[in-house]
User: Fold this.
Amino acid sequence: SQQGEEDPQALSIQEGENATMNCSYKTSINNLQWYRQNSGRGLVHLILIRSNEREKHSGRLRVTLDTSKKSSSLLITASRAADTASYFCATDAQSDYKLSFGAGTTVTVRA
Amino acid sequence: DVKVTQSSRYLVKRTGEKVFLECVQDMDHENMFWYRQDPGLGLRLIYFSYDVKMKEKGDIPEGYSVSREKKERFSLILESASTNQTSMYLCASSRTGTTYNEQFFGPGTRLTVL
Assistant:
């Protein structure tokens, strides 16, 4: 069953702008991960944040986690055309190795 | 470079045919997964395996079976393909016993059942 829900479903921004997407989940987690999927391809892991962390950075990515609200956000700064993709959050609430994915946010970066 | 490969990128089959989707990983991972991805529904887990010859049903196992005879290979079987099984199928693998259960994905197989 889906644990994470991304918002918005779709996002269109100009190159150089920031993109922010959110993920809400229902039950307690050990960690939350974000993945990217380019059109018609497999998913690629971007970043993982543990339940005892509040913020994490990786290059132009910034992830926050608020366990009291059961929500996370992914910020992509200074977006590029190559950031055009779908972004998924994944949580591990159900087991040590299974992940539950949301439906994703589709980001389009216009040149 | 870690790799998960899937036997076909595109596959077209007829209703009632038996379909095999193969997935191979070269990372010596214990866990392997099969998902299907449909627009607006995200990834839904069909089956997963945490060891050779071990399997567990995911959220939508009906109409599917799996086989894991070797650690590196996980097969998804559609016993009698139906049109509602037209979808993108994604295989993934991960390691057990780590805090970080990152999954590594194959490129996907887009299956069309006519």
Summary: The mean pLDDT of chain A is 91.
